[in-house]
Design goal:
heterodimer; A: alpha+beta; Uridine Diphospho-n-acetylenolpyruvylglucosamine Reductase, domain 3; Enolase-like, domain 1; five-stranded antiparallel sheet; four-stranded antiparallel sheet; 10 helices; 12 strands; B: alpha+beta; Ubiquitin-like (UB roll); DNA polymerase, domain 1; 37% helix; 15% strand; globular; binds flavin-adenine dinucleotide; binds FE2/S2 (inorganic) cluster
Chain lengths: 253, 152
Amino acid sequence: MLKFKTYLCPDTIEEALEHNKGRANVVLGGTGWLKMGDRSWNTAIDLKHLGLDQIEETDDAFRVGAMVTLRQLEIHPGLDTYTCGAMRESVRHIVGVQFRNCATVGGTLWGRYGFSDVLTCLMVLSADVVLAKGGAVPLTEFAAMKPDDDILTHLVIRKIPLRMAYASFRNTETDLPTLTAAVASVPGGLRAAIGARPARAERVEAEGETALLSAVSNLSYGSNTRGGGDYRRHLAGVLTRRCLEQLRGGEYE
Amino acid sequence: MILKLSLNGRPISADIPADQSLLDFLRAQGCYSVKRGCETSNCGLCTVWLDGAPVLSCNMPAVRAMGRSVTTLEGVRAQAEEFGGYLADQGGDQCGFCNPGLIMNVLAMERELTDPTEADIDEYLAGNLCRCTGFVSQKRAILAWLKRGDKE
Ligand SMILES: Cc1cc2nc3c(=O)[nH]c(=O)nc-3n(C[C@H](O)[C@H](O)[C@H](O)COP(=O)(O)OP(=O)(O)OC[C@H]3O[C@@H](n4cnc5c(N)ncnc54)[C@H](O)[C@@H]3O)c2cc1C
Ligand code: FES
Ligand code: FES
């Protein structure tokens, strides 16, 4: 249950930062995750007046506002083409359309959830998050940072030449994933990100496929109710191979 | 705080607690079609439209609807009854508890997708759970509903 006493919609990011000082107040994304907790907050800060709900595409980059919903990511034609369908594939299994019309990019990245399909997919891109106080930070670095009282305003995806694929495994449709994998072919080599290990997605890089598969296998894998560590390591190899197959233009079952 | 919005085409102004959920607000306004199921965003029973897009009313503070347009099943009664007939024909409702949320999402899907395939339908409606039907009879009803123009 999400509980708060006061609700504010600041008109400037400076005002939002001012209200976000201290631990009694909270920034609202799509409130999907916040609602699962039982904390009572003093003030809820809604960023809806800050113009952060658009995806802007230029020749060099996509600039995605923090209030953009997962559904917007899923159906954006430019992102779909650039990511070879991987962006859509990473989002489309998350709960349902109604949920994806609420959940935001800001709340998703800020949470740095271990199970996050979206974080896994974005990790193989050349992406930065823009923080109101901290400025631009590479996503791979941001994912390892501890949450503080900053505010995420944008995600910037730089358009480097790339081919990519995404795959996840769930015990049942719409459940949290048991394992997530993204693979990209970029100038100079291959990148893979494996998430839901159940720890947060981590990226590895290699020049060739064999070295990439070995790096994926050497990541740490743990156990929870969705799967054991050894099973996850095996799944990671399977999903990585499927992604590689897709990059080569092949089909997989 | 004072919440002003359009509910099923009518302007509404109400004094509500700042953190009231849209689900509780709508039920307090007499929109009893909006059902409380899981309250954890998983079942789709509480589906309503916000500016025409399907959202989970259990997942949204009502204040977020300030100045916007909210539609519940009460606002699309004629269409809902017509589609309800297709569900009944196919045995697609048993206890019927999931119906309002399903109907709101099927009508939204029909507006948003052109010629959806069965896979598209499954994907769009994945967030609407039904404990009774096993989805097969619901799917028959949806396919028949989407093809209804073909016979005219
Ligand atoms: C039932 C359920 C099932 C899910 N299943 C999946 C799944 O299968 N795969 C998957 O990848 N994800 C899944 N998720 C996670 C979901 O996709 C979102 O990532 C999650 O709900 C957070 O996004 P939100 O917009 O709801 O954020 P909120 O819940 O509003 O916020 C989350 C956190 O981020 C903070 N925050 C929000 N925006 C900002 C900002 N701009 N700057 C700073 N801090 C901010 C909030 O204060 C809060 O601490 C699931 C979530 C739920 C509730
Ligand atoms: S009651 Fe809202 S999704 Fe179940
Ligand atoms: S008919 Fe009973 S839950 Fe769907």
